[in-house]
Amino acid sequence: MMKNKTVRVVVNCVMLAAVAAIGLAVFQLGTSSKEDSAPQEIVMESDETDEVARAEQEEEIPAEDAGTSQVEAEMSEDDTMYGMETEDFSSEETGSQGETTGEITGESTAEETASVEENAEETAAEASIKTVLDFSEDTLTEWPVNGNILLDYSMDQTTYFPTLDQYKLSPAIAVQAVEGAPVAAACAGKVFAIEETAQTGTTVTMELGNGYQAIYGQLTNLTVSEGDTVEKGTIIGYINAPTKYYSTEGSNLYFAMKRNGEPIDPILYLP
Fold it and tell me: Higher model confidence: residue 141 or residue 55?
């Protein structure tokens, strides 16, 4: 009986040992399995994360690159387009400005040339006239109008004036002429003054040079102005109706000459 108990105890111990060994083995297997599986899951998650990240990067980066390339292409096209338009506009504007500048320059040059030529002609004419305006005792004039002398020059004794019905000194001659007849410059001269007087109406005084002057009265429709220089024979105006001082004498040219402000006889210088 004791022997049987001993055998049972031994058997039980062996079984407990076996159970313990089995349990330990099972525990170790479970632990190692969890340890082995955990890293695999982590590695897989890590790998998946990396793959996902790489995939996203591969998807995103090309998209960004494509967008950037498209934008750059559009910008390049815009730059090219605007650059061409700007260049064309600039060329057109430059051409237009060039044509305008050319036209303005051409017109200005033509005007300046014409002005220079005109000034040169005026200067030459004035120089020529200045040479001619050297009036002297020997200078010969021409008749301003063709007609009979109605009143003679007389500063030594009085002359009868029919309209005034009186005798008085006569500092000029009155040459008969029809109204509207042209009046020519008796000699070259420069218009010194244009006046309106009661006795002689519209009257032109010309400087002849060396203190000499010629005076033309009873005029209308003048063709000269103060400061003008005219040559001998130039039409300076036309015969007007006579003033009340010459109503009886009729239409005429009042023609006088002076030297240093003193009256001289015009007949002495007429042919």
Answer: 141
